[in-house]
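== Protein entry: sequence and backbone fold ==
=== Local backbone shapes as whole numbers ===
==== Amino acids and backbone structure tokens ====
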Amino acid sequence: MEPTIYVAKIVYSTSVDGVGLRNSLYVSGCPLHCEGCHNQAFWDIQSGTKHTVQDVFQQLNADDFNISILGGEPLLQYESIVELCKLIKKHYPQKTIWLWSGYTIEYIKEHFSLILQYINVLIDGRYIQELADPNLKWRGSSNQRIIHLNKE
């Protein structure tokens, strides 16, 4: 059976989810339920529509823009997200992939380590409403880190 991804939405040619113009995949489903979350509508995985990984790959790569993966919590659909990132790097090695996760890099290294070889930048950590700062670039709260993993 072909792997699938529950997609909340895809935003094309956006400049708010990382450096430069990017195509952003927002996945549905999140077990973390951070207080004050900006994307609460995506918490239920069924809030998204089910697509094959191949279909999402084709939609995200309809142009030359780099890729951002957000949620929801992308690692809830770990196997499919890894497969998607593998496809992107195989066919478009020059593209950068940014991924947002509510988990810390330490936790990801222990439980989801394979994804780290395919993404260029990880924004890690839960959104914490008390640490929210609207002036932060690419993150919602000051505890979240921008971690450069692979060359851009």
